[in-house]
């Protein structure tokens, strides 16, 4: 089990592949598969924002209070253990994937103080032999020196259908029309926020996964890596 704030000396020499993109574009799945193929660590940066959102909700914090939310983000008691995620001693891996938490995470992720509070924690995941990091600003802000930056996109319809299927498979109720509406709102919020708006990093390779299988998308990332 490791804590999200662990330091790593001389990490600038450790390679990183960043995978950024809008919600439900498949970043997390692709990042884990690429990490497995290469034997590298994986950072799901969105989990840290979702954990912050959950802590804000459970703590009765006003989500509009940027400094209070940033304070929560800076002192999260978090541990990652394989597929399990612990917050203050509770396994919350399933809870942070609920849509209300995702929407709240998108809201608090727009706050500059919150992003700053989580920056060092994200960079601490960079350890040998390498890291695959997925999120919305991995290539633009967190790891701007990454040798390979991927911008993973898919149509909003394809993304909503994937998320609907995921939620139903996990036993949650899901409504496609509602998901489409929420996704469009989150896309707009992510693209238009002042701090680290969602955009392709300079030099990023864009992959449209709308009509690609998971295996084909993973192969495309690995192919780009092999050609560096």
UniProtKB/TrEMBL annotation:
InterPro entries: Cytidylate_kin (IPR003136), Cytidylate_kinase_dom (IPR011994), P-loop_NTPase (IPR027417)
Gene Ontology molecular functions: ATP binding; CMP kinase activity; dCMP kinase activity
Protein family: Belongs to the cytidylate kinase family. Type 1 subfamily.
Protein name per Swiss-Prot or TrEMBL: Cytidylate kinase
Alphabetical list of CDD domains matching this protein: CMPK
UniProt-listed Pfam families: Cytidylate_kin
EC number from the UniProt entry: 2.7.4.25
Compartments (UniProt record): Cytoplasm
A GO biological-process term: pyrimidine nucleotide metabolic process
Catalysed reaction equations from the record: dCMP + ATP = dCDP + ADP; CMP + ATP = CDP + ADP
GO CC aspect terms: cytoplasm
């Amino acid at each position: 089990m490791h804590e999200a704030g662990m330091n790593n000396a001389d990490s600038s020499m450790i390679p990183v592949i960043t995978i950024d993109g809008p919600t439900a574009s498949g970043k997390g799945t692709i990042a884990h598969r690429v990490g497995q193929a290469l034997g590298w660590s994986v950072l799901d940066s969105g989990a840290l924002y979702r954990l912050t959102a959950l802590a804000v909700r459970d703590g009765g914090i006003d989500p509009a209070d940027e400094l209070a939310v940033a304070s929560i983000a800076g002192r999260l008691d978090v541990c990652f253990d394989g597929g399990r995620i612990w917050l203050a001693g509770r396994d919350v891996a399933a809870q942070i994937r609920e849509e209300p938490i995702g929407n709240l995470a998108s809201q608090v992720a727009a706050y500059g103080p919150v992003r700053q509070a989580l920056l060092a924690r994200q960079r601490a995941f960079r350890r040998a032999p390498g890291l695959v990091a997925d999120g919305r600003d991995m290539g633009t802000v967190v790891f701007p020196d990454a040798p390979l930056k991927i911008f993973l996109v898919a149509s909003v319809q394809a993304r909503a259908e994937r998320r609907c299927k995921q939620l139903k498979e996990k036993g949650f109720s899901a409504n496609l029309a509602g998901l489409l509406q929420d996704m469009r709102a989150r896309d707009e919020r992510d693209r238009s926020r002042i701090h680290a708006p969602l955009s392709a990093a300079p030099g990023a390779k864009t992959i449209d996964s709308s009509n690609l299988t998971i295996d084909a998308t993973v192969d495309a990332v690995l192919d780009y890596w092999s050609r560096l």
